[in-house]
């Protein structure tokens, strides 16, 4: 299996090993807990129309069941007003004074001040998946996720190895600093190799419309003949990119992020070179586990808990498809 550089991989393995040991202790303790001992933990995540966040929620659901936690998943539902709605939901959840909060910090410009107030009030907060650049600054006790810029750089290097010289990074959540860093890292790789890249921005309200996304990518390909590689940062957008490339008639090195049945089939058929899997199930499971352990025992893994990426290629895609049949939803494929 293909991972990020060894230094990052070692940190991820260490964190996972630590958490794996702690799961056994936590499960034993949780089994003995009475109903009134349940800590209340809320998890705020992304919209469930994206299979990525479905897997993240399932991770949280499974951890809550295993640990006997009073747990609630909260997210917005309106793509046209997601930032404002999500910020309001974070405030409302904090007003209920839960034992701990797990928050996806998707829009730091809006959410950083809110989260800083929450942590200052004494509620422990773990930042999950998005917001890895600022979690310490806003008083969070930990971050579960990945290094966005390193991820983008790794993706770019793989595409360059496949012959690409000019990449297109498709950002479908403008204002989300994680995706901004993804694209910066992607550009880092192309610049270092003597090439270049550009960003195609798609509004979040349009991001779940495959026809719109495909048309936008096809337009980018038509308007810039230099583009010979694409990276979409979501499964829906990845499937849409396959159609765009086919319609363009050009040879494009195409990669994506996040798993769906459509993207996995595209990978198996050779329409995608690889998919970067951030393993959102682990984001949900480990974030809730870490929050629980902190609330109950005041124990906490030191530093960032790395959960990805794992690179899915034609060599291991069949294994992932099999897992998805056996354990639906765990890999985010739907």
Task: Explain the overall architecture.
The protein has 334 residues and is an alpha/beta fold. The chain folds into 2 domains: 6-146 and 279-311, Rossmann fold; 148-277, Response regulator (Rossmann fold, 3-Layer(aba) Sandwich), CATH 3.40.50.2300. It has 11 helices and 12 strands. The chain has helices at residues 6-32, 51-67, 82-95, 108-120, 148-161, 177-192, 210-223, 235-248, 261-268, 280-297, 317-326; strands at 40-44, 70-74, 100-103, 125-128, 142-145, 166-171, 196-201, 229-232, 253-257, 274-277, 305-306, 310-312. The strands form 2 sheets. It has a 6-stranded parallel sheet, sandwiched between helices. Strand 1, helix 2 (51-67) and strand 2 (70-74) form a beta-alpha-beta unit. Helix 1 crosses helix 10 (280-297), helix 2 (51-67) packs parallel to helix 10 (280-297) and helix 9 packs antiparallel against helix 11 (317-326).
- Whole-number tally of structural domains: 2
Radius of gyration: 20 Å
Helix content: 40-55%
Structural class: alpha/beta
CATH architecture of the largest domain: 3-Layer(aba) Sandwich
SSE ordering: HEHEHEHEEHEHEHEHEHEHEEH
Main-sheet strand order equals 2-1-3-4-5-11
Count of beta strands = 12
The global form is globular
Give the N-to-C terminal Cα separation: 22 Å
Beta-sheet strand percentage? Answer: 15-25%
Low confidence ranges = 1-36
Count of individual helical segments? 11
What's the level 1 CATH class of the largest domain?
Alpha Beta
CATH topology of the largest domain: Rossmann fold
| CATH homologous superfamily classification of the largest domain | Response regulator
Mean pLDDT: 90
């Amino acid at each position: 299996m293909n991972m990020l550089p060894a230094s990052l991989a070692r940190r991820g393995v260490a964190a996972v090993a630590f958490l794996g040991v702690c799961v056994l202790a936590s499960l034993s303790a949780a089994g003995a807990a009475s109903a009134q001992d349940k800590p209340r933990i809320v998890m705020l995540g992304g919209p469930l129309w994206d299979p990525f966040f479905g897997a993240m929620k399932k991770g949280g659901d499974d951890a809550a069941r295993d640990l006997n936690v009073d747990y609630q998943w909260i997210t917005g539902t309106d793509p046209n007003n997601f930032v404002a709605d999500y910020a309001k939901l974070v405030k409302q959840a904090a007003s209920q004074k839960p034992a701990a909060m797990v928050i996806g910090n998707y829009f730091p410009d809006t959410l950083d001040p809110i989260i800083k107030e929450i942590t200052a009030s004494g509620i422990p907060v773990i930042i999950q998946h998005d917001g890895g650049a600022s979690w310490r600054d806003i008083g969070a006790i930990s971050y579960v996720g990945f290094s966005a810029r390193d991820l983008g750089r790794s993706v770019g290097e793989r595409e360059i190895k496949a012959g690409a010289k000019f990449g297109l990074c498709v950002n479908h959540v403008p204002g989300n600093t994680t995706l901004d860093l993804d694209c910066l890292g992607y550009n880092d790789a192309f610049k270092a190799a003597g090439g270049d890249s550009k960003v195609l921005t798609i509004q979040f309200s349009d991001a779940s419309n495959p026809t719109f996304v495909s048309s936008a990518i096809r337009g980018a390909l038509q308007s810039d003949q230099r583009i010979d590689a694409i990276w979409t940062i979501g499964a829906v957008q990845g499937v849409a990119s396959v159609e765009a490339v086919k319609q363009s008639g050009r040879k494009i090195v195409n990669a994506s992020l996040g798993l769906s049945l459509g993207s996995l089939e595209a990978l198996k058929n050779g329409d995608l070179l690889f998919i970067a899997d951030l393993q959102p199930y682990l984001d949900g499971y480990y974030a809730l586990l870490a929050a629980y352990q902190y609330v109950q025992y005041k124990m906490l893994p030191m530093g960032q808990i790395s959960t990805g990426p794992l690179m899915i290629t034609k060599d291991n895609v069949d294994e992932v498809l099999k897992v998805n049949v056996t354990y639906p939803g765990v890999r985010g494929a739907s």
